Amino acid sequence: MIRVLVVDDDFMVARVHTGFVSRVEGFEVVGTCHTGTDAVAAAAALSPDLVLLDLYLPDQFGLDVLAELRSAGHDCDVMVITAAKEADAVRGALRQGVVDYVLKPFGFEDLRERLERYAAQRDALSDAQVRGQEDIDRVLSRGGGGPVAALPKGMSPQTAALVESALRDARGNLSASEAAELVGVSRVSARRYLEYFCSIGQAEVSLRYGSAGRPERRYRWGG
């Protein structure tokens, strides 16, 4: 589980964000705070993996809180959630390495997609074996730190990352059934992701003809 600390000066907003996070599979809220001072103390006590950080806090500006977290040696990731649209705030947050910058107000689906994208990048980094620039680009393309092409509705970034990994690691090519078995999803679901990768030029499909029946569609990474 990815442990999340929610920091927002508004008690009701913090409650809403807590509810949103709790609905996303693989995430749990381990604490909520309403001031910068409490956020730094909670990070020390709870060791969260991810902090959802508001910038407009009653005692400190959120980026100052982020700087304190870093100077104290906390390696938690930070996703800024704020109404601050100033370019300086955005630039400052990016310079300090936030994984995403989300403007209020937003709905559950928006946050869910961002959290799943963050989780996919986190998983990729934990297993990453960097052999060259392509591997680095592949990991960064899943992250929340920059614009990422949205998946079609109903498709999960986490599942897409798993299907991609299975296809990349395959010796030769895979059928939808083989990919489904490797990832742990249905054949229909696996084929949907495989066809999506083909549609955006990241994979290619070929046909294998048998003695009878329809030819089998075989997928290979790299369009």
From TrEMBL:
<dbReference type="Pfam" id="PF00072">
    <property type="entry name" value="Response_reg"/>
</dbReference>
<keyword id="KW-0010">Activator</keyword>
<dbReference type="InterPro" id="IPR011006">
    <property type="entry name" value="CheY-like_superfamily"/>
</dbReference>
<dbReference type="GO" id="GO:0003700">
    <property type="term" value="F:DNA-binding transcription factor activity"/>
</dbReference>
<keyword id="KW-0902">Two-component regulatory system</keyword>
<keyword id="KW-0805">Transcription regulation</keyword>
<dbReference type="GO" id="GO:0003677">
    <property type="term" value="F:DNA binding"/>
</dbReference>
<dbReference type="InterPro" id="IPR001789">
    <property type="entry name" value="Sig_transdc_resp-reg_receiver"/>
</dbReference>
<dbReference type="InterPro" id="IPR051271">
    <property type="entry name" value="2C-system_Tx_regulators"/>
</dbReference>
<feature type="modified residue" description="4-aspartylphosphate">
    <location>
        <position position="54"/>
    </location>
</feature>
<keyword id="KW-0804">Transcription</keyword>
<dbReference type="GO" id="GO:0000156">
    <property type="term" value="F:phosphorelay response regulator activity"/>
</dbReference>
<protein>
    <recommendedName>
        <fullName>Transcriptional regulatory protein</fullName>
    </recommendedName>
</protein>
<keyword id="KW-0963">Cytoplasm</keyword>
<keyword id="KW-0597">Phosphoprotein</keyword>
<dbReference type="GO" id="GO:0005737">
    <property type="term" value="C:cytoplasm"/>
</dbReference>
<dbReference type="InterPro" id="IPR024187">
    <property type="entry name" value="Sig_transdc_resp-reg_cit/mal"/>
</dbReference>
<keyword id="KW-0238">DNA-binding</keyword>
<feature type="domain" description="Response regulatory">
    <location>
        <begin position="3"/>
        <end position="119"/>
    </location>
</feature>
